[in-house]
Amino acid sequence: MMTLLSWITAFLLISTTAADQEAKLDHFPENFVVAKPGDSVSLTCLATTTGPVTWKFNNDESGFEDYMSKNGHNLIVRDVEGPLLGEYSCWRGETKLSSTYLLQKTEEGEDIDSLFTCRAKSYDCNFSCRWTEDRHEAVRLGVGPDCTKGLPTCHWVSSSGQPNSEGFQFELTHTLSPFGEESTMLEVTAEAIDDFVLLRRTKQFYLRDIVVPDSPRIVSFEVLQSKLNVSIEPPSSWSTPHSFFSLEHEIEYVLRDNGKTISSLSSLIPKKISMFRARSRDPLVSSPWSQWTPWKNGRNSCQCKKKQTSELSPQCLERCKRKMEKRRTKHAKQSQHLL
């Protein structure tokens, strides 16, 4: 008897858990209506039919009749609250005609900056945003006034799958010209679902305020008398032409004698260093600095004998060729002298 009771209890627990998981909304449905707590809403059967229809709530025809009434093909839901949130579907016989989800608008006044952050690698038409909250099952972002106003013409970018350790990631586009003076702010509207409760927020910012370049490229470095001349180029993701979209580079190096770390905005740094690295930013708008490049060994800049030809920069490769040519000329002269 105890074994049978234990089996029934486990079965009910599994069934309840499965039902809860099924009830969770992990995507944005095609049709949904948002209401405030205590509001009354009218749900429309989105199908052309002349006969009578039957309404189901979460695939059940009964249970909440005191809060619902029919008006033709429409269903009126009164005093919206948590238990009334979910899927409402209209049927004709055994045929499901359409469904609409009833969601509740959250009244929480969360700080928009704590919900998502955005970054652009350049002034091109692409930028990315990261949703930092982890309690929402589905999130979508849209750019422009149409999304701010909630118009059907808004192009939404929805989250897919489970968020990674850094949250949901979004790749968005804009239509601002990178060459003109920026006078229009970007508008990014976010919608997030958590257990049939919809959060909706809009964030405004200038593109220049979110530009953070990728790490630059250290092309080469060579000795010039008592200095080391470091050649740095913008990352491949930066806007072109570089003569118009300039970057400011900072070099951080470690002195070989005393291990002291020093930063410099000049491409000429002391010769006697053990290692160095670089980062970049847009100097016109004082954008945040990029991430540092990996530390680079400051000794034996080209190392012709220790590296494969494919690993050398064009400048180093040319220097190595000149060294080899000098050695060959020297060996040839020595051989002629011996003869």
Produce the secondary structure layout:
Blueprint: H1 2-23, E1 32-35, E2 41-43, E3 54-57, E4 68-71, E5 74-77, E6 86-92, E7 95-105, E8 116-119, E9 126-131, E10 138-143, H2 145-148, E11 156-158, E12 168-173, E13 186-194, E14 197-205, E15 217-224, E16 227-233, E17 248-255, E18 261-264, E19 268-270, E20 273-281, E21 296-297, H3 314-338
Parallel strand pairs: 1-7, 7-14
Antiparallel strand pairs: 2-5, 3-6, 4-5, 6-7, 8-9, 9-12, 10-11, 10-13, 13-14, 15-16, 16-19, 17-18, 17-20, 20-21
Keywords:
single chain; about 350 residues; Immunoglobulin-like; 8-stranded mixed beta sheet; 4-stranded antiparallel beta sheet; 3 helices; 21 strands; elongated; disordered N terminus
Description:
The chain is an alpha+beta fold. The protein folds into three domains: 28-105, Immunoglobulin-like, CATH 2.60.40.10; 112-209, Sandwich (Immunoglobulin-like), CATH 2.60.40; 217-317, Immunoglobulins (Immunoglobulin-like), CATH 2.60.40. Helices cover 15% and strands 36% of the residues. The N and C termini lie far apart (110 Å). Residues 114-193 form the Interleukin-12 beta central domain. GO terms for molecular function: cytokine activity; cytokine receptor activity.
Instruction: Describe the sheet with the most strands.
Output: 8 strands, mixed
Percent range of helical residues: 10-25%
Mean pLDDT: 83
Q: How far from one another are the termini?
A: 110 Å
The coarse overall form would be elongated
Which homologous superfamily in CATH is the superfamily of the largest domain?
Answer: Immunoglobulins
Strand content: 35-45%
Number of helices: 3
CATH structural fold name of the largest domain: Immunoglobulin-like
The string of secondary-structure elements, in order, is: HEEEEEEEEEEHEEEEEEEEEEEH
- Architecture of the largest domain, according to CATH? Sandwich
Structural class given helices, strands, pairing? alpha+beta
- Output the CATH class name of the largest domain: Mainly Beta
Count of extended strands: 21
Residue windows where pLDDT falls under 50 for at least 5 positions: 1-22
Number of individual domains: 3
Rounded to an integer in angstroms, the radius of gyration calculated over CA atoms is: 32 Å
